[in-house]
Design goal:
With 192 residues, the protein is of the alpha/beta class. Helices cover 52% and strands 20% of the residues. Helix 2 packs parallel to helix 3. The mean pLDDT is 87.
């Protein structure tokens, strides 16, 4: 089974949350038998949204666990910045103790993939991470298939153009011959 490492960035001002998430994900992996793939996690942590944005600019993670109530820039404000970066393989999960329908809708509107209310259990975290990993892999495959479709279409058009070139050139040559002949003076030339 192939192994791949997904980077996870935990953005939370509570040390206990950062340490807890790191411990849970260090011993967790997602096995995708149909893909022959085992995903393990490399967890990095920061305390503020500003630090997170700098890290994301340098090396985008696949998964961001982002607290909403942070010192300085809020998680929702950071989410707007992260979403504007247009990172196709980065998913953000909002984690917050101030969970409400309104905040979940707002987070989703600004690009969050999921919403995990605090306090959450290790099982809740693992289930959410599993869903994100599956989605990332599905979207990766979709992008690969789209690229393959473009490549095959280009190859088909190239082969088609090549195959049509000879008959078109033959017809063009025959038309030039007819054009060069004065058929009005000798109609027998084009009778057959």
């Amino acid at each position: 089974m192939n192994q791949e490492v997904f980077k996870v960035l935990v953005v939370d001002d509570e040390p206990g949350i950062r340490i807890g998430i790191s411990r849970v994900l260090q011993s967790f992996s997602v096995k995708l038998d149909e893909e022959n793939l085992n995903i393990i996690f490399d967890v990095d942590t920061v305390e503020t949204a500003e630090e997170a944005i700098e890290k994301i600019k340098k090396s985008p993670p696949q998964i961001i666990l982002l607290d909403n109530k942070l010192p300085g820039m809020s998680g929702i404000e950071a989410l707007e910045v992260i979403t504007s970066m247009k990172l196709p393989e980065t998913y953000t999960i909002i984690i917050t103790a101030y969970a409400s329908i309104e905040s979940a809708v707002k987070a989703t509107k600004y690009g969050a993939y999921d919403f995990l209310p605090k306090p959450f259990t290790p099982t809740d975290l693992k289930n959410t991470i599993y869903k994100v990993v599956k989605q990332l892999i599905v979207e990766r495959k979709a992008r690969q298939l789209a690229e393959e479709k473009k490549r095959i279409r280009f190859e088909f058009l190239s082969v088609l153009a090549h195959e049509l070139k000879a008959p078109i050139n033959a017809v063009d040559g025959y038309l030039k011959i007819l054009e060069d002949m004065d058929v009005t003076k000798n109609p027998e030339l084009v009778k057959d």
